[in-house]
Write a structure and sequence with these properties.
It is a single chain. The protein has a single domain, classed as 2,3-Dihydroxybiphenyl 1,2-Dioxygenase, domain 1 (Roll), CATH 3.10.180.10. It contains one helix and four strands; from the N terminus they run E-H-E-E-E. The two termini are 16 Å apart.
């Protein structure tokens, strides 16, 4: 899992490089926004934005 400042902005930039969102972006309590992406090589990566 990687900490990012802005999940939405990070998704836009990574999609341009072939990454695909797995599922959807979810919010965990009032603490985090979380999602998983699959990179072009098939690796699954988690992204977390602290709120």
């Amino acid at each position: 899992m990687f900490a990012v400042d802005d999940v939405d902005d990070t998704l836009v930039r990574l999609r341009k490089r072939g990454a695909q969102l797995v599922g959807e972006v979810v919010q965990y309590a009032d603490a985090y926004r979380l999602c998983y992406i699959r990179g072009p090589e098939g690796l699954l990566i988690g992204l977390a934005q602290e709120l």
